[in-house]
Amino acid sequence: MAGRRCGAAPESSEDEWMRRALIVVVAAGVLLAGAAPAAPPEYPVTFIKVDELRVLLDRGTKADIIDVRNWDAYVDSHIHGARSMPLRAVPDRAPEISKTGLVVFY
């Protein structure tokens, strides 16, 4: 009776088969998840810190600064010159985003 919980009904062979199949599917998914390389971004992606952005802006660098938080967070506080574009809206509003120059999402 090893493997049975006390008071539990015995597993049918179909239940055992389903459990093993599920384990195989999950294991295969985990193994294959890292197998496909991610597509490179169309545009270079660089992460910068707030202080680095401040230096760039102080030097006169033009930047399209986009606040992807919700509207309430934007209204509460945002980077001067930033515009609100909630993250879920970015794909639909992509044509509004600068195709040249510095674009900052936060």
Number of alpha- plus pi-helical segments: 4
What series of H and E elements makes up the topology?
HHEHEHE
Widest beta sheet: strand line-up: 2-1-3
Q: In one word, what is the shape?
A: elongated
Structural class: alpha/beta
Whole-number average pLDDT?
Answer: 80
Tell me how many strands there are: 3
Name of the CATH architecture of the domain at 50-105: 3-Layer(aba) Sandwich
The fraction of residues in strands falls at: 5-15%
Question: Largest beta sheet, briefly?
Answer: 3 strands, parallel
CATH superfamily membership of the domain at 50-105: Rhodanese-like domain
The helicity comes to 25-40%
CATH class of the domain at 50-105: Alpha Beta
Radius of gyration: 25 Å
- Oligomer kind: single chain
In angstroms, what separates the terminal alpha carbons?
A: 57 Å
What low-confidence regions span 5 or more consecutive residues with pLDDT below 50? none
Kindly identify the CATH topology of the domain at 50-105: Oxidized Rhodanese, domain 1
Protein described:
The structure is a single chain. The chain contains four helices and three strands; from the N terminus they run ααβαβαβ. It is α/β, with parallel strands linked by helices and 106 residues long. Helix 3 (71-76) links the parallel strand 1 (63-67) and strand 2. The mean pLDDT is 80.
